[in-house]
Amino acid sequence: MNPTFDIWKLMAGIGVFLFGMVLLEESVKALSGKVFRRLIRHYTDGRLKSICSGTLVTAILQSSAAVSLMVLAFVGAGVMQMENAIGVIMGANIGTTFTAWIVATLGFKLKIESFAFPLLGFGGLGLVLFSSTRKLFQSSRLLIGFGFLFLGLNYMRESVEVFTQSFDLNLIPDYGIWLYVAVGLLLTALMQSSSASIAIVLTALNTHLITFTIGVAMVIGANVGSTIIIVISALGGSQAKKRVAMSHLTFNLITATVAFTGIPYFVAIIRLFIDIEANSVMGLALFHTLFNVMGVIVVLPFIGLLARLLIRIYPEHKAHLAVYIHNTPAEVVEAATDALRNEIIHLLVECQLYSVRILKIEETIVFEEPTLFERGNKKDFSVDTLYENIKILHGEIFSFYSKVQSQKLEEGEVHELERMIYASRNIMNSIKNIKGIRHDLDEFDASENPYLNNQYALFRKRMVELLLEMGRTKQLETQEEQYAKLLETFVRFENLDHRFVQETMAAAAAKEIQEIEISSLLLVNRLFTQSCRLQVFGLKDLLLTQEQINNFDQALDMKTIVDNENTKSRHESYKAANEQ
Hints:
Layout: H1 7-42, H2 47-61, H3 64-76, H4 82-95, H5 97-107, H6 113-129, H7 134-165, H8 177-191, H9 194-206, H10 212-225, H11 228-234, H12 239-261, H13 263-271, H14 280-299, H15 303-313, H16 333-358, H17 363-366, H18 372-375, H19 383-405, H20 411-436, H21 438-446, H22 450-475, H23 479-509, H24 515-543, H25 546-579
Helix pairs in contact: 1-2, 1-3, 1-7, 2-4, 3-4, 3-12, 4-12, 4-14, 4-15, 5-9, 5-14, 6-7, 7-9, 8-9, 8-10, 9-10, 9-14, 10-12, 10-14, 11-12, 12-14, 12-15, 13-14, 16-19, 16-20, 16-24, 19-20, 20-24, 21-22, 22-23, 22-24, 23-24, 23-25
């Protein structure tokens, strides 16, 4: 018989196996995600506890990457110490060996169709019948995940069975055991799943395509390869993220070194429990668990040292995004007040930059020079990074405000500080509104409806006009001029809001837009207009005196009353006309 190797069936098996793993992970997280996060967070206050928690959660989730992400989040939030994080990661390595035991005990011992097909059948029916019931729906996905897991394993096994019947192991060149460690590492890095690569190794070993020693080497490589994705994702990330990734890599390298140098001893220990020649698959599963446990025993006494070393290598560099308050002492109240006002104006400018980028407006139209964030940044950053920096800046502003507020202040100084911090909150709420309508604005821009395209262009025009007028206001010499300009700007943009609503109603009557588009337009306009108002209010509280602020608010109250009366009159005229 000529040896044949069905590469497409093997690839299909890998794909189905990986898909099953994804379904398993997602369904288990959906069913008990909060429980696992709580377990990782609250039951890791000691080294042994953290190792046990990492082992248990990874064994159930079947994903060391998911557990590593949880650890990363908790370390970054400051609710988990680095030593305990290393313990969880060490436990996660032991937990990943659970997959090998499932494959070894069930995957090659039973006829897969006898339980894979029922799992797929019941799971598929459950997805259809229980789509409205969350727990039953996710339980059905869990069944399908297990079904695909074993079905994929069966495809992999069948793809090489015929080939191995006439394959001579002596044909494999002896390049040294290191080559197979590298193959296992590369295989895991490419597939982003050590469980899948180890399943392939077990399949090859079960069909006698490789020797037990080669299988051992590939499992060692797969163990190291599981860290590649986490290390790559940590590049350019926070210092905490780098520490977690490097602790994972360090532990796996130490474990791999111990396993590689001690292969003869591990094999001798395994032979005490399992006949490797008769049951090599079970032997390899035991080796996978054994060398990970040995790695934990070796590294456990040095967790504290490793944590301190990583913190020293990747120290926490606290970035100060504030410009004016950073080096200003809170004890000198007059200087601190001026610095706080300038910093909040800085906050306003960065928020305006965010709005400009969300609306894809050419920045040079609004800004004569780069903002302070851009001057201090050597490379371009995304709007999401800009938003996060703005939040950090606002946090620094509020922290400084608290320090100033704790000083001995006069009543007038207290009121002035309260106005300024209120202005900063209005400014932050203004960009939160813009962030909320970001995707709607993109849909208007990409729509095939010319009316929506035109409204998107009008939103951009309104924003440019607002920012230019606010820039001119800041440059005016007297507060009286600033007061008049701000009130004029506010009234004009309120009128634009009313005009937008009227035009939208007219377009709806003319069937230029559909009902859902009407709703989207009105919602976006309301949040957009509110954002414009909040920016004006913020600048008002920063530039004007208390008396001018009171007059400004009274003028707005009078305008609101007049607008309400006009609206009521229009409704009554409309009603009378309909009755006639």
